[in-house]
Amino acid sequence: MSIGVYFDEDALEIKMAKFNPPSEFRFDRPADWPEWKQRFSRYRLATKLNKDSGDIQVSSLIYSMGSEAEKIFSSFHFASDDDKKNYDVVLQKFDEYFIPRRNVIHERACFYQRSQQPGETAEQYIRVLYELAEHCDFGDKRDEHIRDRLVVGIHDKELSRKFQLKADLTLLEVVEQVRQAEEIMKQVSLQSNPQKLSLQ
């Protein structure tokens, strides 16, 4: 099936041979699209594919995704034929296809309610907050929201109170101090338990 974009397949395969593109996309796992797209983006930069014409970039994307991508591409409606050769426009179409519209209110509610869980390390909690924030449309206020949720949601309530007394805290400062506090607690725990210390 034609995708409406002409390209030299031999030239494309030579270019793609220097660096291996991502494995073909698993269309039965649409939730994996953001991760696959990020890997293709890195591949696109590594091969300087981004310097090529739009139709070559679009064809490379679809070629890398696999044959199912051609069927999906053919179902898209474009404002003009030029849009079919515009990499950013085509990528946005695939975004809309694979990523359902999110309920921002619900996503933010999940973010604001997320506290550090029993047995969850500071590093794990920080990573979860970053992941949740990606779906909240915080824009340039993202770091402030992560900082505030981290301050309120950590296990260490004494440290949380100290944070709340400072008006000029940055996310970086909070992250560093939370990590340091957890490391100190581990060391104190080991020192108070010689048996654990001897097993290290």
What is the secondary structure topology, with strand pairs?
Layout: H1 9-18, H2 33-46, H3 54-65, H4 67-75, H5 81-84, H6 87-98, H7 104-113, H8 122-133, H9 142-153, H10 157-164, H11 171-191, H12 194-199
Helix pairs in contact: 8-9, 9-11
Describe the structure in brief.
With 200 residues, the protein is an all-alpha fold.
Give the helix level as a range of percent.
55-70%
Q: What composes the largest sheet?
A: none
Report how far apart the termini are: 62 Å
> What structural class should be given to the helix and strand makeup?
mainly alpha
**For the CA atoms, what is the radius of gyration?**
23 Å
* Share of residues in strands: under 5%
Regions with pLDDT < 50 over 5+ consecutive residues? Answer: none
Helix-strand topology string? HHHHHHHHHHHH
Query: Count the strands?
Result: 0
Shape: elongated
